[in-house]
Write a structure and sequence with these properties.
The protein is of the alpha/beta class. It has a single domain (about 1-90), classed as Transcription Regulator spoIIAA, CATH 3.30.750.24. Helix content is about 50%, strand content about 15%. The protein has helices spanning about 5-10, 15-30, 45-60, 75-85, 105-115; strands at about 1-5, 15, 35-40, 45, 65-70. It has a three-stranded parallel sheet. A two-stranded parallel ribbon has the order 2-4. Helix 2 runs parallel beside helix 3 and helix 3 (about 45-60) crosses helix 4 (about 75-85).
């Protein structure tokens, strides 16, 4: 089992989805099947980063192939928030969809909304 120090590999501030993709590809190219991801010295992680990180590592985390350690409290809270909303179905109500016959009908609808 290999340990990957995310702050040393990427940065102390984890700011974007592409950065999470880069980290995933780095791990994938290492050919390690069981890993420990160490968040020591991480100062900050955006929700975007944590969302992409979770999407990429979700299966590995759930299957026990990836273990996350030393998460700062705020980073752990962000990860938990992402995990709690990740699998919820999005509901679209037909009541919010407005069907129009043509562009003039659409413009008329917008006029009503603007009042």
């Amino acid at each position: 089992m290999s340990v990957f120090y995310i702050s040393r590999i990427l940065s102390r501030d984890l700011m974007s989805r592409p950065l999470a993709d880069d980290f995933y590809n780095y791990i994938k190219n290492s050919n390690d099947t069981e890993i420990i991801i160490d968040f020591s010295d991480v100062h900050f992680a955006t929700r975007s980063f944590m969302d992409e990180f979770y999407v990429r590592f979700k299966d590995s985390i759930q299957n026990g192939k990836a273990c996350l350690v030393n998460l700062p409290v705020d980073v752990e809270k962000t990860l938990k928030a992402v995990m709690s909303t990740q699998n919820k179905k999005k509901v679209i109500s037909d009541e919010t969809i407005v069907k129009t016959k043509d562009i003039q009908d659409l413009e008329n609808h917008f006029e009503v909304l603007a009042v």
